[in-house]
C-alpha cells in the first residue's frame, strides 16, 4: 500500500499503525479498498450487495490471541459514505479488533463517514474492540462521523468496547446497542472531547437479556469553547443481571453538556445503578500543578489528559 504523509498520520492517529499491520486487516481509503490481509483463522470478504457496501469478517471457533485491523481514512473533500461491517466470531475465541476513522478535509465541502458495525459473539468468546475517530485539515468543510455499534453476546461471552474521539470532528451522532445474554459481560468505555462549535450526541441501549448478565458503562468527556454534548445511556434489565452507568464530564468556556443516564428494570432481580457528574476543573488542582512549575495552560492540559486517559 502506497502511503503519503497524510495517510501515515491518519493511520497512526486512529489505529496506532506504522506500516502493514500484523494479523488480518482491511484498509479503506476514500470509499475504496486499499489493502487487505487474511490469516488461517480470520477471513475478510467484501459484501456483494451494492445497496449495503462493506465487509464480513469471519473468525473461526477457538481462535486465540489474534487481531483484526479495519481502519477507514478519507482525504477527499465532499466524500459521503455509509458502510456495513459484520463480525461473525465463533465460540471460545480471544481476539482484538481495531477500527476507527480519520478524515483529512482540505476543502470547502463536508466529508462524512457513517459506519454500522454488528458483532455476533459466540459462547465463551472474549473480544476487545478499540475504535478511534479523528479529524484534521486546513479546509472549511465539515468532518462528520456517525458510528453505530450493535453487539449480540451469547452465553458467557464478553466484549470490551473502548471508543475515543478527541479532536477535529465537527459533528457526530453515536449509537451503541448491546444485548447481553446469560453469564455474558459488556464493558463500555467512551472518551470524548469537543471544542469550537462541535456537536456530539451519544446514545446507548445496553440490554441485560439473561440471568447473571452484567454490564458497566463509563463515559468521560470534556466540552470546550462553544461545543455541545448530549449523553443518553440506557441500561435495561430484562433479567436478573447487574448494570452500572457512570458519566463524568468537564465543562469549559461556554460549552453545554446534557447527561441523561437511564436505568430501566423489567425484572425484580435486576440490579441497576447510575451516576452522573458535570463540573469545571477544580482550582486547587490547577494551583498544585502550577506550584510544580507548569503554566496555567500546561496544568489544564495535564489534568484533561489524565481525565481522558
Summarize the structure.
With 309 residues, this protein is mainly beta.
Description:
By secondary structure, the protein is mainly beta. Helices cover 10% and strands 56% of the residues. It has three helices and 21 strands. The strands form two sheets. Strands 1, 2, 5, 6, 8, 10, 12, 14, 16, 18 and 21 form an eleven-stranded mixed sheet that branches. A hairpin with a 2-residue loop joins strand 1 and strand 2. Helix 2 packs across helix 3. It is globular and about 55 Å long. The two termini are 32 Å apart.
Q: How do the helices and strands line up, and which of them pair or pack?
A:
Blueprint: H1 5-15, E1 24-29, E2 32-37, E3 42-46, E4 54-59, E5 64-69, E6 72-74, E7 80-89, E8 94-104, E9 111-121, E10 126-136, E11 143-153, E12 158-167, E13 171-180, E14 185-194, E15 199-208, E16 214-223, E17 228-237, E18 242-251, E19 256-259, E20 262-265, E21 271-279, H2 283-290, H3 296-308
Helix pairs in contact: 2-3
Query: What shape does the CA trace take?
Result: globular
Q: Main β-sheet: number of strands, strand sense, barrel status? A: 11 strands, mixed
List low-confidence stretches: none
Number of strands: 21
Name some characteristics of this structure.
single chain; 309 residues; mainly beta; 11-stranded mixed β-sheet; 10-stranded mixed β-sheet
